[in-house]
Amino acid sequence: MFSLSSKSFRRLAVIVFIGLTASLTTSVVAQDLLVADLNEKEVAITTDFNGADLLLFGTIDHELNDDVIIIVEGPPKNIAIRQKSRVSGIWINTESATLETIPSFYQISSTRPLNVIASTKTLKELGLGLDNIPFDLIEGSTISGDDPQVWKAALIRNMENEGLWNENSDIKVRKKILFRSNIHLPANILPGEYHVRILHFRSGQLFNETYSLINVQKKGLSAQIYQFAHNYPPAYGMFAIIFAVFMGWGAARVFRR
Amino acid sequence: MYIYLPIAEISINIFLILGLGGMVGLLSGIFGVGGGFLMTPLLIFLGVPAPVAVGTEANQIVASSVSGVLAHWRRGNVDVKMGIILLSGGIVGSTIGVYIFALLREIGQIDLAIKLSFIVFLGIIGSLMLVESTRTILRSRRPGGKRRKLHQHNWLHGLPFKMRFRKSKLYISALLPFGVGLLVGILSAIMGVGGGFIMVPAMIYVLGMPTSVVVGTSLFQIIFVTANVTFLQSVQTQTVDVVLAGLLLIGGVIGAQFGTRIGAMLRGEQLRGLLALIVLAVCLKLVWDVVITPEDIFSLELLR
User: Fold this and answer.
1) H helices, E strands: number in chain A
2) ipTM of the predicted structure?
3) How many beta-carbon contacts under 8 Å exist across A and B?
4) Domain CATH for A163
5) A202 lies in the same domain as A81
6) Chain B hits for A74, Cβ within 8 Å
7) What is the mean pLDDT of each run of 10 residues along chain B (304 residues)?
8) Using the 8-state DSSP alphabet, how is residue A130 labeled?
9) Domain containing B13: what range?
10) Distance (Å) from the C-alpha of residue B295 to the closest C-alpha of chain A?
C-alpha cells in the first residue's frame, strides 16, 4: 500500500524536478543541477530498534554564496503543553494549552547558520527553522497571562531536549559539487512518513529544490503486538493475564527445590 | 543491548529492565508486597510513559504474585476464605479506580495524583510500621515484658455479617475485609501497584490477622485484583506492554524466589521495620520531587 504512494510521490518529485530544470535551463545553462538521494528510505522499527542514522547526499552546482538546507519533518501530532506553578509549596500543572499539527520530528541542517543564509523575512515565509514552525492552538485552547513567546520557547526547548527537534549547520560541501548530511532519527520517533526537502539557496533566495521521503514503519514482533493490543483489546487483556500466570507459575516450578 | 517496547514505543536497555525487575522482585519476595510502589515510579524515571508504567505494572504483578504465592501455598500460609472476601472488594474497587484514573488523565493531573497518593499512603504506613516494629523489638529485648494480645477489640468488631476465618483465627464481620479490599483496589488501579504495602499493614492492624498468613493471603488476592486492572487497562487505554512486563517479571520472579527464602529467615518485627524504612525512603524522594523547583516548569505530552 505504502510503496505505491512512495513511488507516486517520487514520480511527482521527479516531474517537479524536471519542470524546474526545464524552466531554468533557458536562462542559466547547467547552473541548476540539484540531485539528492538517501542511503536508505525505509526505516523498520523492530524489536532491537534504537534509533537510525541515515545519510543524505547529492550534488549541486555550488558557487560562492550558495547554500543547501535540508529539512526532515516527521508526522504531525497534537501536543499538550503544560505549565507548573507553586501552589502551597508543591508544583502543580496549573495552565495548559493544546497545539495543533506540530511536527513530531524536525531536523533542519544547512551549510551555514540559517540567519546567515537568508533574511528573517525569507526564512519566515518559507517556514524554515525551529522558530518558524507554526505555533497554532487548537480551537478552544488559550494561553492566559503569559506571553505566547514564552510557551513557544518552552515547546522548542522541550522538543530539543527529547532529541526530536534539531537545528544545525553541519552540511559539508566537497569540491563545490558534492554535499552530504547526516539524519539522526532517535529511538523515540513515531512511525509514519518523514518528508525530506532539499533546498538550494543562491544569494539569499530559494533557487532550486527537490524532495525525498523516508518511511518509518513498525515491523516484526513489535508491530504484531501493537496491532493485537489496538485491534483486539479484550483478547489482548486476556492474553496478558494468561501469559503472566503461566510465566509466574513456570518460574516457581523452575526454582522449586 | 537495546530493546524496542511495542506499547511504550520507546527503546530501552534490556539489562536495565532485567536488573530493575530482579531488585524489586527480591524485595517483593522478602516482604510479600507486589513491589509496584517502587517499580511504577522507577519506570517513569526511566522514561516509560506514566499510563504505560501503571498498566504494565499491574500485568507484571499478576505474574510475580502467582510465583510468590506458590511458596506460601505449599507452607499452608494462605487463608483462602479471607482472600476471597478481600478480592471481591478488590475487584469492585479496582474497577472504580480505573475509571478515576481515566478521568484524572483527561484533566492532566494524573502524574501529580499518583505522586500525592504515594506520599500520603507511604508516609502514613511507613511511620506507623516503623513505630510499631521498633517498639516490639525493644520490648522483646527486655525480659519479662508483657505479651501483646492476639488482637485488640474495638467498634469494628461490632459490625454485622460475622464470619469465622479458621486459618486467621478470627471471628469478624465480612464487611471489614471487603471494605479493606475495596479501598486498596481503588488505590491499586490509580497508583499502578498491587497494594500489598497497604494491604499487609491493614491486615495486621485493622483485621488483626496473624503475621504468618498475611503475606500469602495478600499475594493470593493481589493476583485477582491486578488481573482485573490488566484487563480493564488493556480495554480502556491500551497501555499494557507485555514485552516490558515479560522482561520485568523474568528479573522479578528470580529475585522473588531468593526474597521468599530470605524473608523466612527474618523475624516478623524486623521484616516490618525494614519495610517501613524502604517505604519512608520512597516517600521522602517523592516529597522532594514535588517540592523542589522543576528544571523546566513546562512539560509536553504528544497526543495520539
Assistant:
1) 6, 12
2) 0.82
3) 194
4) 2.60.40.1930
5) yes
6) none
7) 88 91 82 74 81 89 84 88 93 93 83 84 84 83 55 65 82 88 90 82 85 88 93 90 91 79 79 83 87 87 76
8) G
9) 2-143+159-290
10) 11
Nearest CB to B67 within list A93, A188, A248: A248
**Domain for residue B295, yes or no?**
no
B300 is a domain residue: no
* Span A115-148, pLDDT tens digits: 999 999 999 999 999 999 988 888 877 787 668 8
pLDDT digits (tens, 9 = 90+) for A35-85: 888 888 899 988 888 899 999 998 887 777 788 999 999 999 999 999 998
Burial class from Cβ neighbours inside 10 Å (0-12, 13-18, 19+) for residue B231 reads buried
B145 at interface of A, judged by CB pairs closer than 8 A:
no
List all residues of chain B from 233 to 292 with a beta carbon under 8 Å from chain A: 233-236, 238, 240, 242-243, 245-246, 249-250, 253-254, 256-257, 290-291
Asked if residue A257 has pLDDT above 90, the reply is: no
CB B221 within 8 A of CB B87: yes
Is 70 exceeded by the pLDDT of residue A192?
Answer: yes
Whether A48 is in a domain gets the answer yes
CA dist., res. A235 & res. A221, Å (int): 17
The domain in which residue A187 lies consists of 34-218
**How far apart, in whole angstroms, are the C-alpha atoms of residue B26 and residue B262?**
9
Q: Searching chain B, which residue's CA lies closest to the CA of residue A191?
A: B9
Structural domain tally of chain A?
2
CA distance B66 to A247: 9
Has residue A6 been placed in a domain? no
HSE, CB side, 13 Å, CA atoms: give it for residue B299: 15
Number of structural domains in chain B: 1
| Chain B contact probe: residue of A46, A88, A91 with most B CBs at under 10 A | A91
